[in-house]
Amino acid sequence: MVSRMGRRTNLAPYLFLLPAVVLMLVFVYIPVIESFRFSLFKWNSFSPEWTWVGLGNYRKLLPDPIFWQSIGNNIWYAIISVAIQVFLALMLAALLESHAVGRRLSTFFRTSLFLPAVLAITIVGVTWQMLYRPDTGLINQVLHVVGLDSWTRAWLGEERTAIFSVIAVSQWQSLGYLMVLLIVAIRAVPRELYEAARIDGAGIWRQFRDVTVPGVRETTLVLVIITVVGAFKVFDVVWVMTAGGPNHASEVLGTFLYRTAFRDDEMGYASAIATMLFFITFALAAVQLWAGRSGKDA
Amino acid sequence: MSASIHSRRGILKLGLAAGVAAAAPVALGGRIAPAARAQEQVTLRFFHKWPEPEQIAFYQGVIDAFQAENPNIKVQMDAVGDEPYKDKIRILMASGDVPDIYFSWAGEFAWKFARAGRALDLTSAFNDTDWKDNVVNSATEPYMWDGKLFGIPMRINAKFMAYSKAKFDELGLSAPTTWDEFLAVCGAMKESGLTPISFGNQFPWASSHYVGDFNAKLVANDVRMADYRLEADADALFIDPNYVEALSRFKSLNDEGYFNNSPNGISHDQARTAFIAGRSGMIYLELEEFVNLAESPMGQDGFGFFQFPSGTGGAGDQKLITGAPDGFMISSATKYPEEAIAFLKYLTLPKNGKEYVKQLGIPSASVGAVTEENAIPQVVEGVNQIAAASGLALWLDTDMNTKVVEAYLPGFQALLTGSKDPQGVMDDVHNAAVEAQTDQSDQ
After folding, report:
1. How far apart are CA B59 and CA B65, in angstroms?
2. Which of A41, A241, A283, B65 could pair with A50 in a Cys bridge, judged by C-beta atoms 3.0 to 4.6 Å apart?
3. Contact B410/A245, CB-based, under 8 Å?
C-alpha cells in the first residue's frame, strides 16, 4: 500500500505550500528576527556605524512613560473593540437573523452598517476630523442644539477625549464588517437546533444564549483574536486623525514606533518597540488560542 | 564593513517595505547605462515635497525645457506632501536608495545630511560661477555647513501676521509694532466679540513657528544658537529663563482667549479657512500662503500684514524674521553629479524663478524673480521686508535636533491644554537636548 505513488502524493501538498512558506519567511519571520537583532544596537538611518548596546534599548523602554501611555491606549482600544465589534456585533447579527426583524429591514440595516467598512481609512479619518471640529463640527453643533452645551469639547484636541474619539471611529468603521462575518457564522448553525429550542419553549434570548452563542463560538474566538491583535497593531486611523497628539495623549504602540523610527530617527529604539509589540500580540494570540482550545476539550 | 552594512540595509529595506505599508512609493529610476560614454543616457531622480497639481505643473514645465536642451538627460520627478516627506526621506536614506536631487529644509534638517556625508559639496560648483549671481546669496547661508555649501535655495518663505482690513477698519485698529500694542489689538477684538487670532495646532508645527519667533526675539542670539546647535555645556542647554518667557507669552495668548477655542482640535488649514470666512481678525501665516488669501473671497485688497512684534524688550534680535529658504540638495552617492548640478542650476535660473512666482505666487530665491508684474503687492512687500531683516530665524521644528523638537512639539499642545506649564516643557526640552548632545558626541 505504501508505495512510491503514495509517497509522491504525500509530497505534493508541501510543494504547494512552499511558495507561501518562503514568502512568509522572507517578509515575516526573517524581519521579525532581524528586528530583534536591530534592537540590540544604537543606530539611525544616517549613521555608518552601529553601536552595540545589548538590552540597553529595552532598559530605556520600560521606564518610558510614553510607552506605558501607548500600551494603556492600546488596552482601551482592545477592550472597547471586543465589546463593540465582537459582542455588540454578535447581538446585532443575531437580531438581524432572527424573525424579530423583517427581511427587507434586515437587508437595509446590514448594508448600511457594512458600508463604512469599504471606505478608505484616510477618507474616514478626515471626515471624522471635520465632524469632531470644536467650532463647526456636527457633533458639537448637535449637542448645542439639544441643549447639551456642557458636553461639547474639542474631541480630538483634548487629552482626555482624543483616544476615545479615535476609538469610536474605529468602532463605527468595523462594526458592520464583523457583524456580516457573524451573520455568515449564524447561518451555518443548523436550523433544527432553533426549531428544537422553540419547541422546548425557548424565547429569543434563550435561543441566542444557548443556540447561537455556542454555535458561533469558533468564529467568535477567531474574531476576538483578530480584534485584539488589531487593536494592538492599530496605526493608520490614529496617525491620520491625531498623529498621537495632543501631547502623546492618543499615542498607541504603532504611532510611538513610527514616530521613534521616522521622526526621532532612533532605529534601534524603534526596533525594541517593534519587538515588544510583536511579543505582546503573539502572547495575546497564544493565550486566546489556548483558552479556546481547552474550552473545547472540556 | 561596507558589505555587512549593505546587507543590513537590504534587509532593512525589506523590513520597512513589509512593516510600513506603502511608505515610499518613489519611482525607481530607469535602468542606468554603464558609465564612460560622453553622450550616455542619464536618468536623474528628483524628489520633493510639493505634490500639488500646480506645483507639479511648474516643475514638469522646467523639466521638459531642460530635457529639450539636454536630450541625454531624463529627469524623473516624484513628490509627497510636507508631513510625509519628513518620514520618507529618512526611509530612503536608511535604505540607501537616495534620489539624485532631493528637497531639504534649511538648517539642522539639511546639516544632518551634510554631517552624515549624504549630500554633495556644491561649494566650488556654486562659487565663482554665474550660478552665484542667479541665487539670492543670503538664502544659501542656512545650507552652509562647516564652511561648505550643501544646498541651493529654491524659494524663500517667512511668517507674518496677516489681518483682515475690514475688521481692523471696523474697530479702528492699526498694525501694532510692539508686544503691548499687539496685546491691545487682541484685547479690542475680543472685547468686540471677535476671535482675535485663528490658530490650528492639531499638528504642532504650527506652534513651533510662534515659539521659534518668541525664542529668536527674547533669547540672546549667541545663547540661542549654542542651544539649537547643542554646542552649549550640557547643564546649560536650554536653561536660559527667556525660553520660559517665550512659552509664557505664547501660552498667555491662549489663556487670554486671543486664540480660537481649542487650537489643538483644528488644523492650520481649517484655521485659515476660518480667518478667510471672517471668523477672526488675524492669523499667523507664511508668505507663500498670501496667494491663498488673495485668491479667496477675501481678495487681494482684503488683507494686510505686519511683522509679529513678539519680542519687544527681549534680549534677542528684534530685526529677525521667522522664515527660511526651501531648497534642494544633491545626493553624495549620485552617479551623475555633473548632470544633477546642471539640472539644479537650470531650475534656479532667474527666468524659471520669475515663472515660479508668476505661476504659484510664491517668492523664488532666484535673483530679481519677484516683481510688481508677477506678484501681488503683499508678496513684493514681504520679500522687501525679508531683505531688510537682519536675518532669518529658521523654523524651530527643522532647525534643531529632532529629539529636541520631539520634546518641544507635544509640549506646545500640553501648554494649550494646560497639562504642562512653561517651566515643565523647558525641563523636558533640556533633558532631550542633553540626551541628543550625548548621542551626537557618540557618533
Report:
1. 10
2. A41
3. yes
